[in-house]
Amino acid sequence: KEMEFEIELIDDDDWEPDEEFFLKISLPPDVDNKDVKLGRKNIMTVIILNDDEPGTFSFDKRGYFVKESCGTAVFTVYREDGADGNIAVRWRTIDKTALSAKDFVGSTGVLYFKSGEMN
Fold first, then answer.
1. Do 93 and 104 contact (CB within 8 A), yes or no?
2. Is pLDDT at 13 greater than 80 in this prediction?
3. Which of 54, 52, 53, 50 is nearest to 19 (CA)?
4. What is the torsion angle, in degrees rounded to the nearest 10, for the CA atoms of residue 27, residue 32, residue 34 and residue 37?
5. Model pLDDT for residues 72-117, shown as the tens digit of each residue
6. Closest to 111 in 3D by CA, of 61, 52, 57
7. Is the distance from CB of 59 to CB of 73 less than 8 angstroms?
8. The model's pTM
9. Cα–Cα–Cα angle for 54, 58, 60, nearest 5°?
10. Most exposed: 1, 10, 99, 112, by fewest CB within 10 Å?
């Protein structure tokens, strides 16, 4: 015969690594259990899998063509494969053959994604 019991799990909306706890069965000391034996599997590990993925952040393309005369270029960062939690993503310009202050105005910034926000 088997019997079951339940352990309530507390669902939060924060990303965190997988977490674990142990379950153990033992014999109560105040009950006559002299003929009762516990099996080898009397302790088990329970792993709570994180289902609050913050997502993956990226541009929609590897490159853009922009005309020198366009004035301003607008770029979008996308959040895919999850949208849990408030996340900050930093961005910055990096010189290559186009140089900051000569060919474009270099800058840095932070994008703040709210929980559930995708772009």
1. yes
2. no
3. 50
4. -30
5. 999 999 998 778 888 999 999 999 999 999 999 999 999 999 988 8
6. 57
7. no
8. 0.59
9. 130
10. 1
Written as six digits, the tokens of 114 are: 């709210």
Amino acid, res. 22: F
Q: Which two tokens stand for residue 19?
A: 């977490």
Q: What is the pLDDT of residues 19-46, one digit of tens each?
A: 999 999 998 888 887 888 889 999 999 9
Residue 107 neighbours by CB distance under 10 Å: 9
Note the residue count of the chain.
Answer: 119
The region that residue 29 occupies, defined by phi over 0 for left and psi between -120 and 50 for alpha, beta otherwise, is: alpha
Distance of alpha carbon 11 from alpha carbon 17, whole angstroms: 14
